[in-house]
What does this fold into?
Amino acid sequence: MKYFRFFILSALLLNAAPIHAQKTGDGAGASTRDATVLSMMGWGVGLAVGIALLCGYLEQDTGHSH
Amino acid sequence: MKRIKSFLYSTLSEIVNLCVKASIIGDRKRPSIIENFHASPNSQFLTMWSIFLSLLWIPFFCFADPIAYFTPPKDWNCIQPPTSDPYIRIAFLGKGQSDLRPSLNLAIEKTDVSLKEYLKSVKSIHENEMKVSWRDLGPFTFIAGKGRLAEIISPSPLGDVIMLQGIFIQEGYAYILTGAVLKEEFPQWQKNLLDALHSLVIVPNLFSAIRDSSLKKQLQETFHSFDRMTNEEERQKQWSVLQKMILNDFSSMGLHWQILVLKDGRQKLFPDESKYIQ
It folds into this structure.
């Protein structure tokens, strides 16, 4: 039972730890900021990509040349 | 409720599975977890260890993000969001007539408050911290369910920007879709933005959104095959197959869904480069 108590307590403590602190509504604020910046950067942003994504990975359908 | 049920089921299955395995390893004659409490110290230890390992999975089930996607207006480009904000999941850019291009992004925030409380906070952040006008336009229906629509007006060097912000809360997550356009161009983009906001869908996994069962099975099998890939050449080949399949057979699912599936597939096929894919 000693093991049992130890493991359960450890697991509960791990699960009780907060993942990260945040303020309610921050997500909406970030979304507004992002939309504004994105629109203003406009054409300059072009397709500077991260995942641009995977669209960037997308194969060009060139077909066979022979 | 579905998520809670699925989480409980998964956790219980994991516990039972590991307990049974531990019981078999520890003492083949005693497969029951209850019996193992009275078994040898070795099997007791294994059983306890398996319970402990199972419980460690709880945070992953609890805090794994749900999958949300929407359909952006036709011919908009998916781009890397300009800010590295963890809330922003994806952004799209349209082709406007001026220097200020229309844009749309999706943010997801974990929250434990009601929609009413959340809106109160959002209004306060916009008006007090960001110093922009935020106006509640009333209820709004997403495909995912009922939420709220707001209008934000923000000045910019290129002219006033109007934003439509759709907010939807479900099972501990707030989904925020914000579309921005130049005020003068708003009438021509209004319908496109509202349609895009309305298209928000939340699903437990990417496959569950596929209605055609044969296509769903085909895609699932393709993903399962990734686990068997051993060499680079085989992976590259399978990556081409996946791309063609997603582009040709799943165009009706929309660009956002296609990107999510390709991203998921890429991460499974090339786990080493996952850190470079956002």
Q: What stands out?
A: Residues 11-20, 46-66 of chain A have pLDDT under 50 and may be disordered. The longest helix of chain A spans residues 26-45.
